[in-house]
Every structure is written in structure tokens, then in C-alpha cells.
Amino acid sequence: MPPSILPPLLLNLRVALFPGNVRGPRAPEAPSSDEQLQIRKRCAEAILSLAPPLISRVYFNVDSDKEGQDDMIGQVEEILDVFGDSYLNKHLVYNVLE
What is the 3-state secondary structure (H, E, C) of the chain? Predict the structure, then answer.
């Protein structure tokens, strides 16, 4: 790649990242710990809704009552805790990009 194309390339990249030469909107504030728990629970419920109830009950070895549903949600939340570790997330992103 000839060095003469670097300045136009950088200029085009800047225009693409910062249209109108302004920064983007501020990042939203981080959710509180209560909001994080609610988000995790909604995520677990959404994941469980993807599988038929019979398969979920067999996989998580729970009864079909309300307590069994809560147990399944708790187990999925424990699985999601793995993604709460910043060290593991960093390596996951590196491996995906690689």
C-alpha cells in the first residue's frame, strides 16, 4: 500500500466516525445494581422462552410449578454470571476478533 493513500484514508475514517466533525452522544449512565439484577432476570426469562417448557424442565431438572420456574431462572442467571467477568469478556472479544 503506497503511503500517499494514508491521509485520504484517515480523513474518510474520521468523517465516517464523526459526521459533521462532532462527537457522538454521551454514553448512557451505568445501571444501578437493582437495575442490573432486573436486566439479568429479564435476559434469563427471554432465554428460557426460546425453548419449549418440557425441554427446559427436563434440562434443568425442575418441576412444572412456579418454584420450578424460579429455579430455572436462577440457574440461567448463574450461567449469565460468567459473562459478568470483565477478564473473561476481554478474552472472548479477543478470540472473536481473532
Answer: CCHHHHHHHHHHHHHHHCHHHCCCCCCCCCCCHHHHHHHHHHHHHHHHHCCCHHHHHHHHCCCCCHHHHHHHHHHHHHHHHHHHCHHHHHHHHHHHHC
